[in-house]
Amino acid sequence: MIQRNQFKRSVLALAIGLTVASGIQAQSTTGSIYGNVPAEDGTTIIAKNESGLSRTVTADASGRYNIGSLPIGNYTVTVERGGKVIGTRTVTVRAGAGADASFSGGADGATTMETVTVSESAIPTIDITGVDTRSVLTAEQIERLPLARSAEALALLAPGAVSGAAGFGAFANLVSFGGAGVSENAYYVNGYFTGEPLSNMGGFSLPFGSIEQQETFIGGYSAKYGRSDGGVINQIGKRGTNDWHFGGQIVYTPEELRGDQADLYFPDVEFPSEYAYSDDTLPGTLHSRGSESNSWEQSYSVYAGGPIVRDRLFAFVGAEWGERDSVAAPNALTAANHRVTYTETELPKLYAKVDWNITDNHFLEFTYLGEKTDQAGRFFEYDFDTATTGDLLATVPDPFYQKNTYAVAKYTGYLTNNLTFSATAGRGKLTKQQINPSIIPGLALIGNPTRQDPSLNGGTPRSNAQGGAIGVNAEDETKGLRADLEWVVGDHYLTVGLDNIKFEAFNEGQDQLVDRWIYGRTTSNITPGHVGSPVTATNPSGYYVYELIFRTATSMSLEQKAWYLEDRWQATDNLLLSLGLRNDQFTNANNFGEVYLDADNQWAPRLGAAWDVNGDSTFKVFGNAGRYFLAMPNNVAIRGASASTFTREYYTYTGIDANGVPTGLTHVPRLDGGTGPYSSNGEYGQSIDVLSFAPSDLKNMYQDEYIFGMEHAFADDWMIGAKLTYRDLKSAVDDICDPYTMADVLEERGIDSSTVEIPGCFMFNPSGTNTFSLADIDANGVRTGTRTEVVMSADDWGFPDDMKRTYKGLDIYLERPFDGKWEARIDYTYSKGQGNMEGQVKSEFGQMNISKTQDWDAAAIMTFANGYLANDRRHQLKMRGSYQITEELLLGANVRIQSGAPISCLGYFNPGNIDENEPEADPIGYGPSYHTCFGDVASPGTKRTPWISTVDTGLTYTPNFLDKKLALGMQIRNIFNSRKTLQADVTSETDPYTVSNTYLLPIGRQTPRTVTFTATYDW
């Protein structure tokens, strides 16, 4: 038997001499096995998994071997010489990683022996071939930890990962990695892209009990993969083996054991004397009762997997049925609705996989994924003052139905020992409907009835039983194909491949089905510079109403193509270089098939290195640098490249009928010379000229990333590591809605702006220079067929600062892997996310109009916008672990402590020297949306939410008398029922000098304590 240090050196020589197949990449579903055997002629190595897949290779002259592109799972590795077995061992292959299966012998050991033996190292394994940063959780690890049952909950264990904006449901369940926006991640299942096809907000994830491994990448992945500058969540599902297995699980989270949320009271903040609350009776009074809103859930899951034909054909099926119920009571501002909402959501999921080992060198995989979201609800009468619930109402909340399916096929061929080919093809389909059956044709929907003129409604706000106004009936399709050829040539592991996917959306967006009237009040101009004051001799208090029209439904497509080259080169015995180049092409088209963005030859270099400092696998220094491109998602065509209507027509009124509809209407005068409805973005339902909507030289969003780190194994059981990350957003895409500035620039250049058609909004690169093509028009506004080009720079638009988003992070970890008794992992992250652009979304107030946020719409809205970004958390401490108390009893814990999130303040544009009643205080008609508050500059992040801590624990009992087939568990998440504020309302005013009563009101708080019981049976 060789000595321990000799063993470590031989493993190092092997690992860096034969680069791990499939190269530790995101989205990978395979890994590799490598090792050392006695260096004698006729020695072969056979690796066989539980599904009968078998690969045989011959060791090289020094006794080293490598078996690449292996599906993950458990393998038995056998060494044979002359047909005689001389040694065996078992290993587990993880996604994208190499598993060491070394035997004594090889370059540093004996070369002749009758029986080889296994030399085990007590130290933890450091992957010296990895140049990326990622975490992999196996099914066994997931079972030991008290975690919420979602892909995002697992991903949040990764260093630097933070939850999305808690105040908005669409963001709250998502994750931000390395300062990026929550829409900038990629989701994969079994190697196929499963991100939400319209806006990339989240993605499909497996039934929780069907997860074999989840791989979370937070940076540094290779040229094989792209389309993410945040993180990658890659799930690999379970598969059938040569033994049949069955099982099921019940998960129950009762309402009665959920911690109460604390009551909320209207804020009472200090502000200058010239400002006043919208309602000065509300500060300090009850806003909402925490005990009146609650939720509870339960799920049932089953699985079965095994051989259809032993060693050749296998199947696995996992199904999960989730039920989630909630109750939400109105707050003081919505009390006039007199109703409480009960919501019931059914969440069935199905995962099926068939594996066919055609031969030992060729196999096929078929995967089917399906999930539904079926949400319905009921309204009950509710009295806010007494907190009592009454009778069931006839109207219902908007129901929501969504079905999402994927069918994926993958072929892998081991053409030779050095040549592997794989191809994956898939199709996905998503349908969704949101049409309220209680919408009453011909009856208007009333908004803000509490702001009606009390002299016209008898002091009681008037509304009606209308159940809604908006309908959604959409369908999205996804088609994908990727192919990879991997070739080992000496010290080089070469790969070449293509990665294509196409998204098509039909009737996406919203359609308005009935009239909508919204009430308001101001003594100033409603929209300075555009819509005047409603004050008249008979309306001195400034009551007004506006009719809202909002229609956006349309179709569109997005095609993403890429090819790549990569060389993982063993430059020296201790140094591995990863050299890659990726070329991305993105093509966006609207409902007429008109292309509005065709970006090709987007070159993304990826460079990485891993250096084993001591030559014994105990100390690794690594680094990488790369560029990552993002396409504009399909949703950009909604209210962008396709026609849309979003107008407000303002009136004063002399009466209100019994249904809350205003009567006796008189137009509020326009100040800009227009008549009728007003649209701040110019959305009047007109056709879109795609040539002017997107400039010809528009660049896609891309980010440069640099990582430098180290890992060290010590004291036999422990690993420590540190990593520095720098991310710099170099190019971004958003819309600008400032035709007036473009017209001024044209006039300055001697071009009559009335002779061209300038759209209300168009896409551009903030801080970049773009060339816009405008249609020429005649005196009657009719297009002449010719065009005028205009080049606009950031200075031309008048922006005060360049676009900026940087992330600087230091991650430090300490880990002790599970040894059958206990495990522990501690991560600390210090980071800064700074700039004036969060990304594709705006978390401050939940704007998820991807790449078309209100940021960059005009120069004024970006003035004083530089600061700390929404996903910035200065300090994060994450601790997790488990302890086997007895053979039957396991304790798990997960602790998360982090500093607060930045709080912005948005108001009218008044840095201290502007009268908010004048047009200068609202130069683009957006109301209180500027980075000034109470007559002062309000840089984002000047204030922050408080530090938070969450402690989760779990206890699992697996009795021996049932052969450990039954497991009973209890998990308590947020055991101390912490209820700190995660997000607050940042809009300071409702009208000039009128402070919003909800300014700084918490809109997102920690989830109260929940107790979950589980019963699992595996046979």
What keyword list fits this structure?
globular; mainly beta; 22-stranded antiparallel beta barrel; disordered N terminus; 48% strand; 9 helices; 5-stranded mixed beta sheet
Unreliable spans:
1-26, 105-113, 117-123
Question: Which term fits the overall shape?
Answer: globular
For the record, give the distance between the C-alpha atoms at the N and C termini, rounded to a whole number. 39 Å
SS-derived structural category: mainly beta
Proportion of helical residues? under 10%
The overall average pLDDT, rounded, is 90
The helix tally amounts to 9
Rg calc:
31 Å
What proportion of the residues form beta strands (DSSP E)? over 45%
> Tell me about the biggest sheet?
22 strands, antiparallel, barrel
Model description:
- It is a single chain.
- Residues 1-26, 105-113 and 117-123 have low confidence and may be disordered.
- It is built from nine helices and 62 strands.
- The radius of gyration is 31 Å and the shape is globular.
- It has a 22-stranded antiparallel barrel. A five-stranded mixed sheet has the order 8-13-14-11-12.
- By secondary structure, it is mainly beta.
Summarize the structure.
By secondary structure, the chain is mostly beta strands. The protein contains 9 helices and 62 strands.
